[in-house]
């Protein structure tokens, strides 16, 4: 009797290690022997699984298609052959372990609308995955904080909707997929994150001016409002934000007026237009959302010009036209008066002797000053005549008759002086115009001057 000793077969698995659920696996058994044509047996170390395959070579490969958790376990190979009608079996090979896992890929995440989102807008997050393990659950959560939202789906994607987002929704979001396979739970990796940013873009408000009682006209420089009429400035904005406040700004001052927005507008009333209301106006809208304050840009400026009422303006013009005929004669009289006064002030009163003596009479407002001036003029005349008389006596050679004659002449001169004084004094009592005073003074002086010089000529002839 003879004996056949078969060596221990070898076993290998491809892919080696952990195998993904549903993947194909190949287990190869091989032996080094000259007794070919036998049968390779693949079996689990536990359980009833057993597979055989006859091969004319020294190896065979067992394929397990789309492995699942039922295929998990330790596998061994054995080789059996028949020699001379006798069966011989090799020892069992070492075991290899088949581990099945469910490897879920990383899901994807998208946000609509993408980028910055307006406060109060609706936002949708879509999570999707490429896997054969459908019917699982999608999870949407923030990268920080406790926010977590789940949704089951029979498909490979789901959409999470956020209605009317606010600042509480701001942050970074990511998705994960979880499923159960053969009563075992599996989770996908987290997706990349997307950031939700909430903003409050405010449009520029509009400004409008009206006058309920038709006291408004639009000119090239702005709104012309008639003084005393009422006008209304209305600020409005296109906005879906609740509430808000409009501020009316008066340019060139720190005066502002604020009113709450009603249906996205506010009206500022001016019952009686006055000049102090003239200037440039603009509006600003302000809203508070989630304890944050947002302010719009200013509106374009609107210029308000306060004008006179038309009836008052026409009355003023008509009154001015009617007064012109009355004012012209009055202006002529004023001009004539000023011209006469100027000429009168330019005249210089007085009487002149050949010795360049002049008697000047300045007619002042006070009579005492006029009287003193007249006495002063007389004394000057009298002194001059006395000196003339003395010179005549010195030139005389002692002719007594001549002296007597001269004395008579002097007496004549004395009488002339008294006449002059009387005339000058009479001027002070005259209340007529100063021009009459000048005439009265000049005429007596002219006569006396002739008499004086006439007498002197007689004296010189006698000498």
Automatic annotation (TrEMBL):
Keyword Ligase: no
Chain segments annotated as transmembrane: 310-340
Pfam families linked: ig, Ig_2
InterPro entries: Ig-like_dom (IPR007110), Ig-like_dom_sf (IPR036179), Ig-like_fold (IPR013783), Ig-like_Receptors_ImmuneReg (IPR050412), Ig_sub (IPR003599), Immunoglobulin_dom (IPR013151)
Span of the signal peptide: none
The name this protein goes by in its record: Ig-like domain-containing protein
Keywords carried by this UniProt record: Disulfide bond, Glycoprotein, Immunoglobulin domain, Membrane, Repeat, Transmembrane, Transmembrane helix
SUPFAM superfamilies according to UniProt: Immunoglobulin
Source species, domain of life: Eukaryota
GO terms for biological process, alphabetical: cell surface receptor signaling pathway; immune response-regulating signaling pathway
Key word Repeat present: yes
Comp. bias regions, Acidic residues: 394-409, 427-438
Disordered: annotated segments: 387-439
Residue stretches making up the Ig-like domain: 9-93, 107-187, 205-295
């Amino acid at each position: 009797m003879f004996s056949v000793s078969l060596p221990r077969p070898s076993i290998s698995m491809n892919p080696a290690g952990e195998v993904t659920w549903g993947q194909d696996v190949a287990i190869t058994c091989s032996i080094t022997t000259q007794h070919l044509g036998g049968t390779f047996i693949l079996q689990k170390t536990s359980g009833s699984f057993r597979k055989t395959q006859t091969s004319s070579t020294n190896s065979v490969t067992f394929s397990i298609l789309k492995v699942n958790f039922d295929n998990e376990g330790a596998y061994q190979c054995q080789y059996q052959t028949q020699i001379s009608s006798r069966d011989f079996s090799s020892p069992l090979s070492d075991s290899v372990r088949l581990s099945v896992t469910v490897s879920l890929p990383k899901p994807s995440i998208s946000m609509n609308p993408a980028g910055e989102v307006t406060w109060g807008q609706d936002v949708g997050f879509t999570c999707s995955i490429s896997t054969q393990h459908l019917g699982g659950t999608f999870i949407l959560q923030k990268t920080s904080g406790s926010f977590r939202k789940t949704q089951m789906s029979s498909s490979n994607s789901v959409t999470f909707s956020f209605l009317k987002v606010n600042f509480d929704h701001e942050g970074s979001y990511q998705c994960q997929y979880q499923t159960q396979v053969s009563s075992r739970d599996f989770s996908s990796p987290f997706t990349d994150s997307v950031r939700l940013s909430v903003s409050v873009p405010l449009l520029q408000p509009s400004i409008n001016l009206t006058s309920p009682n038709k006291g408004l006209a639009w000119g090239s420089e702005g709104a012309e409002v008639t003084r005393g009429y009422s006008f209304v400035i209305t600020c409005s904005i296109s906005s879906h934000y609740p509430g808000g406040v409009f501020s009316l700004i008066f340019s060139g001052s720190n005066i502002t007026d604020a009113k709450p927005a009603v249906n996205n507008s506010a009206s500022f009333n001016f019952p009686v237009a006055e000049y102090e209301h003239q200037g440039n106006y603009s509006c600003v809208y302000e809203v508070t959302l989630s304890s944050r304050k947002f302010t719009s840009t200013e509106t374009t400026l609107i210029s308000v010009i306060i004008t006179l009422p038309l009836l008052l303006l026409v009355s003023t013009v008509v009154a001015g036209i009617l007064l012109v005929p009355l004012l012209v004669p009055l202006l002529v009289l004023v001009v004539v008066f000023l011209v006469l006064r100027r000429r009168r002030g330019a005249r210089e009163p007085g009487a002149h002797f050949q010795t360049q003596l002049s008697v000047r009479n300045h007619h002042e407002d006070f009579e005492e000053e006029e009287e003193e001036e007249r006495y002063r003029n007389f004394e000057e005349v009298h002194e001059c005549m006395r000196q003339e008389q003395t010179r005549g006596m010195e030139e005389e050679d002692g002719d007594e008759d001549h002296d007597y004659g001269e004395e008579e002449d002097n007496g004549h001169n004395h009488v002339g002086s008294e006449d002059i004084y009387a005339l000058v004094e009479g001027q002070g009592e005259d209340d007529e115009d100063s021009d009459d005073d000048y005439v009265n003074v000049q005429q007596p002086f002219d006569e006396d001057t002739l008499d004086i010089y006439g007498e002197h000529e007689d004296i010189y002839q006698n000498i």
